[in-house]
Amino acid sequence: MKQVQIIAFGDPDVLRVVDTDVPKPGKGEVLVRVAGAGINPIDFKTRRGLGFAAERIRGNFPWSPGYEFSGWVEAVGESVGRWRIGDAVFGMTPFPDQGGAYSEFAVTRKELLAPAPGSIPVANAGAVPLAALTAWQALFEIGSLQAESKILIHAAAGGVGHFAVQLAKTLDAYVIATASPDNHDFLLELGADEVIDYHSTAFETVCYGLDFVLDNVGGGVGLRSLDVLSSHGQMVTVPTISAQDIIAQGEERGIKVTGLTVHFDAQQLEEIADLIDTEDVKPHISTVFTLAQVQQAHTLAETGRGRGKLLLLP
Q1: CATH number at residue 226
Q2: Distance set, CA 216 to CA 56, 179, 236 (Å)
Q3: Are residues 17 and 67 in the same domain?
Q4: Which residue, 54, 111, 122, 126, is most buried by CB atoms nearer than 10 A?
């Protein structure tokens, strides 16, 4: 089978498509013929050797990136419960150590899968699990977004952000989004109530007294976001590299700030699939690549100017 691998950390040119054996599922594991694999910031940060996931795999090469995917059950090991050959599924590989979604076939544990939503192509569902679960857990599990709250979402047109906008609107939250001008119409169509051009406007000069901030950027943006929250407000910051600094600053000011490392939850993913099937949430895929184009895909992803998700099609 074809699989993307790296043998060292580095720029996109360390990504290679190689021929390797199709893995066999062990006890409690499922082999999936991959229809689509989503590309996320954790993928290129890990490839560059940055962040906690990179520390976990350091020296464990060759390694195949990619954590979210969709496809059809190809084979099952012992004790896999509900899954049958031919089932359309989406889910994740064991995060953060295993990776392997950038591949024609991927093995994962039985509990890391859910039935794919039936209203969209199976391949497109591969762009959903990690990003949508990150948004869900930020808003509803780690955070506690309430109905009709006022929320600021940074990088709102990106993978996590565009899901977060739509999930927040299921609670009739008032959503303020930051994005570049070419993404304003896109976000308004998703339901955002206001969109701020971060190039021309400092968001902290026009936002105040908010209930919630979802920080998908980190660093200085996360620190400045403390200024826009009310005394009872809360922030969830997603980038791990700057999370501790932002959390510490929040503690000094009496503001609840929490970092987030996504984890798989089948019930949450099934609820997200239901929202997709009712069209309350619409995954947006801006560009599709083949495995052979993975270097170009990572180059584009690292610009941070994408809209929605990028998808690899084996």
Answers
A1: 3.40.50.720
A2: 22, 12, 9
A3: yes
A4: 126
